[in-house]
Amino acid sequence: MVLFLELIFFLAIGYYIYQFVQVLFRLGHHVVLPISEKELLGIRKHPDKLIYHPIFSRQKRGIIFYSCLLLFIVTMFFLLFFFREEDSINWLLNVMFLLPLTYSDDILNLFAIVDDGILSGNRFISWNKIKDVQFIPIDMNHRFYGFNKEVNNGYELKVKGRFRSTSCVVMSDEMKDKLTEIISEKANIQVNEAMKEVSIK
């Protein structure tokens, strides 16, 4: 049982570290969007917070915080492993409860399109792993409605990968059209639009 839980822990933390390294490797390199200040203002991870440039210097705080979080969890695992009581799995369960902290992709205030995929928070989704993309109008029934007038006229872009999904707020029709064009070209998929909704299948 303990061996099985240890394997799950290593697979999970290994996946999060791998995703984080993928993001770090692509920061500042081959960025397609956003490049200009206008494009930067057209996308948000959260409706009331502007995203930062997809470069190390602007993402430094989030990178340091998330790196420390991963290091803390791995350190706690090894400390509790070496100082655990015999035949006890409580120590491992305590560490496993920390894993959900690594799931959030809002730690890095980042959303960018690069040559080979999408960077969103602490994750990277390559074009071939994208299963579905939708633009959802932000109306009175949407969770982001009411933050400000700009958001109320915008869209939520949802990108679904094989195992996880991510989203951002698109502030204008112009940015929506630009994202639609880039995603359809890069992912080599057809974009269908109807009733203010874009679905990529």
UniProtKB/TrEMBL annotation:
Keywords: Membrane, Transmembrane, Transmembrane helix. The chain crosses the membrane at residues 6-25, 63-83, 89-114. It comes from the Bacteria. This is DUF5673 domain-containing protein. It comes from Oceanobacillus caeni. The lineage of its organism: Bacteria, Bacillati, Bacillota, Bacilli, Bacillales.
